[in-house]
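User: Hi! I have a protein structure encoded as tokens and I'd like to know what sequence might fold into it. I'm fairly new to this, so please keep things simple.
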């Protein structure tokens, strides 16, 4: 069984928050930062999470609870993987959600930021995650001029 919930990569640059969303979390680069696509495969017995990196490199790997804002100490460092290589975390529990951060420390830092990938995964966890709230401001004539599109916005 494979469960991979990709999140967003965000960082501060020049006092502005830069973000990469699930739509562009691929092994691709722009002039600012390279993101690393990760994929997780889980096993219930014995419990383990195997994370595949689609980028080669030497990684420092962090793990935390999604509720924590602190990554703390690395759970592994100096982990060398080929493209599509995998690392396995065997110190996991069924029913617990984990967030992992893979930092390619063998790469070149851009603005003191190394290529990084994030993944949220767990074994037999509730896949329903809070999506937050969003306020949508529309022009007063939109419901009249674009009724189908307005209805779709409300439904979404």
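Assistant: Happy to help. Inverse folding works backwards from shape to sequence: for each of the 156 positions I chose a residue that suits the local structure. Here it is:
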């Amino acid at each position: 069984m494979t469960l991979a919930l990709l999140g967003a990569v965000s960082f501060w640059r020049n006092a502005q928050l830069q973000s990469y969303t699930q739509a562009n979390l691929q092994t691709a680069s722009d002039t600012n930062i390279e993101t690393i696509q990760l994929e997780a495969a889980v096993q219930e017995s014995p419990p383990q999470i195997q994370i595949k990196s689609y980028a080669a490199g030497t990684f420092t790997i962090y793990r935390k609870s999604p509720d924590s804002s602190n990554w703390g100490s690395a759970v592994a460092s100096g982990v060398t993987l080929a493209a599509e290589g995998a690392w396995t975390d065997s110190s996991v529990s069924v029913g617990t959600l984990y967030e992992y951060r893979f930092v390619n420390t063998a790469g070149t830092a851009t603005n003191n930021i190394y290529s990084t990938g994030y993944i949220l995964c767990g074994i037999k966890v509730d896949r329903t995650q809070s999506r937050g709230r969003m306020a949508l401001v529309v022009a007063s004539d939109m419901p009249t001029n674009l009724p189908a599109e307005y209805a779709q916005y409300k439904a979404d």
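A useful reference point when you look it over: The longest helix spans residues 147-155. Feel free to ask if any position seems puzzling.
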